[in-house]
């Protein structure tokens, strides 16, 4: 039964990260390949605030949230805004470049060694006994809770609020949306901000659960297949995609070969690209097909 | 609607310049003679850098043909080089095969993987194609890692220097000339290919796939051909890389390597073979420049442990700067400079 708990935790992680890909892609058709790095940057921001500004964990986490919002906003305003009107692929390569830049910068600032964020914040990551045979760590429990909250919040925001409707409209047809008076730059900036924010939550919780180093940005790449399996422009699809990837990964590691954990998400990605490239719940027309 | 998918900057009409005028040919010959004389004066350290540039140049030419000319994006270039390196390494380790078997085998292996890389391109474009090539990169690396693990060579495979016509390719000068010839050959082959029917078909399907098909270009065939040929070349350069380092290990073929090759074609200038060469030189030199900075400006706080991160950051920054401010790359800057000077001299001629 422990394995079910592991699957749920991994699903939450992938889903939380994948929501960031989906938000940006759904609204602006840009694939953000720097998402993994932005996610880890969230965790490093927590390190910076807890070391430099306050030792109170709650205030540090609140400040980190504010900073991650600022980061997301400035990524759009300073960089991605410049790529508007450029070919989509130029924008994607820009995010690749941003990712490698952030990766290098983070090591230069915080060093290559692993950081124990939990002990820095004096956060007790005790394992919680759910039943006799199932234990999960506190941070994992928070991860599941945060994922549920973020998803409910995002779905409500996208489908019930005025700005959410504007975001969906811009994603469907930017030209018509702009002609109806929707400010595309504001909408895109909002998407990047929300995406970085949810990514940072994932980054902080992963760092609290284990340790923090730059190579953990690869989680971002592994969560990408989750977004694609569900359909790149479908938020609830990302949740189900994350479930698919997590189930396969946990089961294969458990029963076949641990080395497979790095490659399974990508095998699933290739399979879905061959069989159903627009994903399980994505819009078929969205795919620019031959 | 042209270039909406992959066109970063506009495709540079390179061949219009490269063709014809004799002044250009003289300049090329001069450059070749100059490069042939380099080993007589250069130190082993400089020869090593030059050889690395040559290996990178072969890979960059392949990616330029695929992405810059045929318009098919690939984030899996490092995986292809790994495939070549591992084919060579495994063949050498298991059978002791010489360079005349390992190199062709690497090319064939690369071409086959290229065919597999290329198959998704028949259905996918742009972002989706990029993702499938990225995924294949991880699969190739995984297979390499599995081999290392299974064969007990968990640190990697060692290779002896290759033997060509009874002569052991070992010292820097020999490598320099051998690689120089191979780069020149690859460049010559690629530029001829681009001037052929195949090259024109690639450009047509880059500019507008639907229009190309309407004009009778067999899109599927030429797309696959682009993947097969360039993957063969990339794999070939991976095999050379393995021989040059006399060592093969999955650690060398990170995602960063693929990104470096993309950086080469962006910085060099999309759509230009000469741009690929410039990009290879530039990108190979960046880490050395950072090391040099590290030694000369000690209070920057850089040391060995952070040098690689500094070069990561520098690559990211450079790619962003080129993508945002100079999408036509170094070759674009060069052409603008030439155009400015030639228009000035024309004006002076009129006066």
UniProtKB/TrEMBL annotation, chain A:
<dbReference type="Pfam" id="PF02653">
    <property type="entry name" value="BPD_transp_2"/>
</dbReference>
<feature type="transmembrane region" description="Helical">
    <location>
        <begin position="263"/>
        <end position="281"/>
    </location>
</feature>
<dbReference type="GO" id="GO:0022857">
    <property type="term" value="F:transmembrane transporter activity"/>
</dbReference>
<feature type="transmembrane region" description="Helical">
    <location>
        <begin position="139"/>
        <end position="158"/>
    </location>
</feature>
<comment type="similarity">
    <text>Belongs to the binding-protein-dependent transport system permease family. LivHM subfamily.</text>
</comment>
<keyword id="KW-0812">Transmembrane</keyword>
<dbReference type="GO" id="GO:0005886">
    <property type="term" value="C:plasma membrane"/>
</dbReference>
<feature type="transmembrane region" description="Helical">
    <location>
        <begin position="6"/>
        <end position="24"/>
    </location>
</feature>
<keyword id="KW-0472">Membrane</keyword>
<feature type="transmembrane region" description="Helical">
    <location>
        <begin position="187"/>
        <end position="208"/>
    </location>
</feature>
<protein>
    <submittedName>
        <fullName>Branched-chain amino acid transport system permease protein</fullName>
    </submittedName>
</protein>
<keyword id="KW-1003">Cell membrane</keyword>
<keyword id="KW-0813">Transport</keyword>
<feature type="transmembrane region" description="Helical">
    <location>
        <begin position="88"/>
        <end position="111"/>
    </location>
</feature>
<feature type="transmembrane region" description="Helical">
    <location>
        <begin position="59"/>
        <end position="79"/>
    </location>
</feature>
<keyword id="KW-1133">Transmembrane helix</keyword>
<dbReference type="GO" id="GO:0006865">
    <property type="term" value="P:amino acid transport"/>
</dbReference>
<feature type="transmembrane region" description="Helical">
    <location>
        <begin position="36"/>
        <end position="53"/>
    </location>
</feature>
<dbReference type="InterPro" id="IPR052157">
    <property type="entry name" value="BCAA_transport_permease"/>
</dbReference>
<keyword id="KW-0029">Amino-acid transport</keyword>
<feature type="transmembrane region" description="Helical">
    <location>
        <begin position="239"/>
        <end position="257"/>
    </location>
</feature>
<dbReference type="InterPro" id="IPR001851">
    <property type="entry name" value="ABC_transp_permease"/>
</dbReference>
From TrEMBL, chain B:
<dbReference type="InterPro" id="IPR001851">
    <property type="entry name" value="ABC_transp_permease"/>
</dbReference>
<dbReference type="Pfam" id="PF02653">
    <property type="entry name" value="BPD_transp_2"/>
</dbReference>
<feature type="transmembrane region" description="Helical">
    <location>
        <begin position="54"/>
        <end position="77"/>
    </location>
</feature>
<feature type="transmembrane region" description="Helical">
    <location>
        <begin position="276"/>
        <end position="294"/>
    </location>
</feature>
<keyword id="KW-1133">Transmembrane helix</keyword>
<feature type="transmembrane region" description="Helical">
    <location>
        <begin position="126"/>
        <end position="145"/>
    </location>
</feature>
<keyword id="KW-1003">Cell membrane</keyword>
<feature type="transmembrane region" description="Helical">
    <location>
        <begin position="27"/>
        <end position="47"/>
    </location>
</feature>
<feature type="transmembrane region" description="Helical">
    <location>
        <begin position="250"/>
        <end position="269"/>
    </location>
</feature>
<dbReference type="InterPro" id="IPR043428">
    <property type="entry name" value="LivM-like"/>
</dbReference>
<protein>
    <submittedName>
        <fullName>Amino acid/amide ABC transporter membrane protein 2, HAAT family (TC 3.A.1.4.-)</fullName>
    </submittedName>
</protein>
<feature type="transmembrane region" description="Helical">
    <location>
        <begin position="224"/>
        <end position="244"/>
    </location>
</feature>
<keyword id="KW-0812">Transmembrane</keyword>
<dbReference type="GO" id="GO:0015658">
    <property type="term" value="F:branched-chain amino acid transmembrane transporter activity"/>
</dbReference>
<feature type="transmembrane region" description="Helical">
    <location>
        <begin position="174"/>
        <end position="194"/>
    </location>
</feature>
<keyword id="KW-0472">Membrane</keyword>
<feature type="transmembrane region" description="Helical">
    <location>
        <begin position="97"/>
        <end position="119"/>
    </location>
</feature>
<feature type="transmembrane region" description="Helical">
    <location>
        <begin position="314"/>
        <end position="334"/>
    </location>
</feature>
<dbReference type="GO" id="GO:0005886">
    <property type="term" value="C:plasma membrane"/>
</dbReference>
């Amino acid at each position: 039964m422990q394995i079910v708990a592991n699957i749920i935790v991994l699903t939450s992680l992938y889903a939380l990260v994948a929501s960031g890909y989906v938000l940006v892609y759904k609204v602006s058709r840009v694939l953000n390949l720097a998402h993994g790095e932005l996610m880890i940057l969230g965790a490093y921001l927590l390190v910076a605030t807890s070391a430099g500004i306050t030792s109170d964990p709650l205030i540090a986490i609140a400040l980190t949230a504010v900073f991650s919002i600022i980061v997301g906003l400035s990524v759009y305003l300073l960089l991605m805004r410049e790529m508007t009107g450029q070919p989509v692929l130029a924008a994607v390569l820009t995010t690749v470049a941003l990712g490698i830049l952030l990766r290098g910068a983070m090591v230069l600032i915080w060093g290559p060694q692993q950081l124990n964020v939990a002990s820095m914040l004096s956060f007790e990551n005790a394992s919680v006994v759910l039943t006799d045979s199932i234990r999960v760590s506190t941070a994992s429990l928070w991860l599941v809770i945060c994922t549920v909250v973020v998803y409910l919040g995002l779905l409500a925001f996208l489908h019930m609020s005025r700005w959410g409707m504007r975001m969906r409209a811009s994603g469907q047809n930017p030209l018509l949306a702009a002609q109806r008076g929707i400010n595309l730059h504001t909408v895109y900036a909002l998407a990047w901000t929300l995406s970085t924010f949810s990514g940072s939550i994932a980054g902080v919780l992963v760092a609290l659960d284990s340790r923090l180093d730059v190579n953990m940005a690869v989680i971002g790449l592994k969560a990408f297949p989750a977004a694609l399996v569900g359909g790149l422009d479908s938020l609830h699809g990302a949740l189900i995609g994350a479930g698919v990837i997590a189930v396969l990964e946990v089961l294969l590691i458990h029963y076949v070969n641990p080395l497979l954990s790095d490659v399974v998400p990508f095998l699933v990605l290739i399979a879905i690209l061959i069989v159903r490239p627009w994903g399980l719940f994505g819009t078929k027309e969205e795919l620019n097909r031959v | 609607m042209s270039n909406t998918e992959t066109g970063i900057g506009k495709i540079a009409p390179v061949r219009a310049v490269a063709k014809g005028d004799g002044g250009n040919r003289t300049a090329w010959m001069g450059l070749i003679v100059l490069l042939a004389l380099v080993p007589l004066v250069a130190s082993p350290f400089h020869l090593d850098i030059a050889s690395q540039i040559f290996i990178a140049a072969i890979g960059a030419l392949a990616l330029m043909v695929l992405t810059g000319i045929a318009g098919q994006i690939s984030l899996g270039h490092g995986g292809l080089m790994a495939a070549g390196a591992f084919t060579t390494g495994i063949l050498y380790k298991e059978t002791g095969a010489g360079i005349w078997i390992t190199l062709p085998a690497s090319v064939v292996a690369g071409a086959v993987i290229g065919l597999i890389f290329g198959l998704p391109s028949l259905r996918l474009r742009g972002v989706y194609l990029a993702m499938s090539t990225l995924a294949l990169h991880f699969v190739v690396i995984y297979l390499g890692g599995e081999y290392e693990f299974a064969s007990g060579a968990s640190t990697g495979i060692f290779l002896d220097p290759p033997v060509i016509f009874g002569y052991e390719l070992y010292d820097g000068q020999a490598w320099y000339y051998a690689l120089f010839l191979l780069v020149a050959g690859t460049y010559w082959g690629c530029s001829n290919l681009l001037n052929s029917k195949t090259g024109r078909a690639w450009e047509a399907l880059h500019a507008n796939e639907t229009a190309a098909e309407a004009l009778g270009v067999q899109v599927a065939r030429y797309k696959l051909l682009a993947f097969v040929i360039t993957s063969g070349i990339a794999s070939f350069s991976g095999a050379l890389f393995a021989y040059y380092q006399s060592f093969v290990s999955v650690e060398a073929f990170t995602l960063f390597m693929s990104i470096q090759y993309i950086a080469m074609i962006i910085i060099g200038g999309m759509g230009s073979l000469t741009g690929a060469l410039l990009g290879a030189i530039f990108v190979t030199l960046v880490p050395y420049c950072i090391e040099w900075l590290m030694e000369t400006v000690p209070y920057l706080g850089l040391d060995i442990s952070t040098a690689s991160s500094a070069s990561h950051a520098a690559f990211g920054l450079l790619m962003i700067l080129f993508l945002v401010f100079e999408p036509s790359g170094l070759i674009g800057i060069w052409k603008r400079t030439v155009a400015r000077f030639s228009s000035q001299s024309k004006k002076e001629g009129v006066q």
